[in-house]
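This part of the workshop introduces the protein records we will be handling. Getting from the letters to the tokens is the skill we practise here. An example says more than a description, so a record of this kind follows:
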Amino acid sequence: MDAQRHDDQPLPDLTLREAAARLKGSHPGKRVHTATITRWIIRGVKTPTGERIMLRAVRMPACWLTSERWIAEFAEALTHARLATPKDRQLSVSAESRRAHACAERELDKIGV
């Protein structure tokens, strides 16, 4: 019988080494390093809005443990954060870009270009 927590969810059962072996790295044929996973747990990953998304894990006396479910939730949260850019943010960047372009045109007109 699998170990269970009081809320009937399974305990995390992946060491960081096991989790790393299941995740592809950013280069072909490479895996994510365990130090990267530790960083995701402790510091998280910064999103475009400045929020930090952290990989869920529990600390045991000898190691960190996570689960496939928590890794999937982490990946979903990162994907959502990258795709769900607020419309207000898009408009303010666009307006800022237009102002910078207009300013540059005025400067070029001043010097006769």
In short: The longest strand covers residues 64-66. The helical segments are 16-22, 34-42, 68-83, 87-110. The chain has a mean pLDDT of 84.
